[in-house]
Specification:
The chain contains seven helices and 22 strands. It is an alpha/beta fold and 374 residues long. The strands form four sheets. Strands 6, 7, 8, 15, 16, 17, 18, 19 and 20 form a nine-stranded mixed sheet that branches. Strands 10-3-2-14-22-21 form a six-stranded mixed sheet, with helices on both faces. A four-stranded mixed sheet has the order 1-13-12-11, with no helix packed on it. It binds flavin-adenine dinucleotide. Flavin-adenine dinucleotide is lined by residues 11-17, 34-37, 42-45, 47-51, 53, 166, 168, 197-201, 205, 221, 223, 289, 329, 331, 361-365.
Length: 374
């Protein structure tokens, strides 16, 4: 069978893969976008806290904080219809066990030049537990609307051929060309340049191409969704350590809840996402090909009530929350982020001929890093 030829093959149909495909096709290239699942945007690009980072979250990694702030304005401008900018956002410091204190946090915000106004009182918060509360400016992107937007853009772009349900079976090199043998109906594909944008599956795909691993850890993570009459359209993030965050999930009207202590159910220190819930009765999830955790019968039981109990301490008695449902996915991090909790977006060229770029995503608004490198 004759192989289909493309200038680029992008593997992974989350926001980074979709953006890379659109950017390259926009320059006139022909691009094949390969997605393992039957739909785009089913994993980390859907299941996240939807925080359009301004930097506040990373007092231990000035580099991540500065990178978030660098791209925030462009991301907001180019995705205006999917960004919620009109809510009150508070950051606060727990009196006990925080890695930061008010003086450090204020100095950090001044250094980044991001607004933070300390408030002395607020009827919704419990100041006996919170040492300091700041009114800040942080927005939330809408992962569901973003997914719809990128799906349409990708499907309509004449330069992009989308292969969903794609299974790469074998990879070979012929001179300066990658030859991919994929299960039907994708078939045989050829390209001089591959971009791996598969996040939790980064190392599985690197290995398929005979290339080195990144040093990663993986966590099965839960984002819980809530509603609240009193805290509608508001957000609170408690810093910096094993605390949590409640904030609008884009424009959905829902609040997302996560907690450093309870969001992460299982941790894999293996470079592949290897978990004890993966078993032969769940054929679509293996360390080499992780699946969609929300749909998995073996996913861990929800920690939503634990997260809620933890967060409720920071609110006054006037505030109540209703738990609705949860999404689960694998969160992957560079092992090197262990100390500073940084989330850089790393793009490395692992092979020059034929070319292979490994794109490991940090924050959603750093999609533009692709333009600097590729
Ligand atoms: C719990 C959690 C909270 C987060 N909170 C935030 C936040 O508030 N703000 C923020 O900016 N970022 C946040 N992030 C990070 C952000 O969500 C990710 O960095 C980003 O979504 C990664 O996008 P991606 O396209 O690289 O990966 P994904 O969206 O995971 O897409 C990768 C795609 O590759 C596909 N794939 C895998 N293997 C193959 C294969 N062999 N062949 C073809 N396709 C394959 C997958 O099916 C998937 O669709 C959070 C992440 C998590 C998990």
């Amino acid at each position: 069978m004759e192989a289909k030829q493309f200038d680029f093959i992008v593997i992974g149909g989350g926001i980074f893969g979709c953006y890379a495909a659109l950017y390259l096709a926009g320059k006139g290239a022909t691009v094949a976008l390969l997605e393992k699942e039957n739909r785009l945007f089913q994993k980390a690009s859907l299941v996240n806290q939807a925080r359009l980072h301004s930097g506040y979250h990373y007092p231990r990694s000035v580099a991540t904080a500065a990178l978030s702030d660098e791209h925030k304005h462009r991301f907001t401008e180019e995705h205006q219809a999917f960004v919620h900018t009109a809510f009150e956002k508070y950051y606060a410091i727990d009196r006990f066990g925080s890695f930061t204190d008010p003086e450090q946090f204020e100095r950090f915000c001044r250094h980044l030049d991001i607004p933070c106004e300390r408030i002395a009182a607020h009827p919704l918060f419990n100041f006996e537990r919170l040492e300091a509360v700041y009114r800040t400016q942080e927005h939330s992107f809408d992962p569901v609307l973003l997914g719809e937007y990128y799906r349409q853009k990708v499907e309509q772009h004449p330069g992009i051929t989308l292969f969903t349900g794609a299974r790469i079976q074998q990879v070979a090199v012929s001179g300066s060309v990658w030859q991919l043998d994929c299960a039907a109906p994708t078939g045989a594909l050829e390209t001089p340049t591959v971009i791996n944008a598969t996040y939790a599956a980064t190392n599985a795909v690197n290995r398929l191409f005979g290339l080195a691993d990144l040093d990663l850890t993986h966590e099965i993570s839960e984002i819980a969704f809530l509603s609240s009459i009193q805290f509608e359209n508001k957000g609170l993030t408690v810093m910096d350590g094993p605390f949590g965050s409640i904030m609008p999930y884009g424009r959905s009207g829902l609040l997302s809840l996560s907690s450093v202590a309870y969001t992460h159910h299982k941790i894999s220190y293996d470079n592949l996402p290897r978990f004890d819930c993966q078993s032969p009765d769940v054929p679509n999830c293996r360390p080499e090909a992780p699946g969609i955790c929300t749909e998995c019968p073996n996913r861990p039981p929800s920690n939503a009530y634990k997260m809620l109990r933890q967060m409720q301490q920071y609110f006054s008695e006037a505030v109540s929350f209703q738990y609705l449902f949860s999404y689960f996915t694998i969160k992957s991090k560079l092992k090197a982020s262990y100390i500073d909790d940084g989330r850089p977006t790393e793009i490395s060229m692992l092979k020059a001929q034929p070319k292979f770029f490994c794109l490991f995503a940090g924050k959603v608004n750093s999609i533009y890093e692709i333009e600097k490198i590729i």
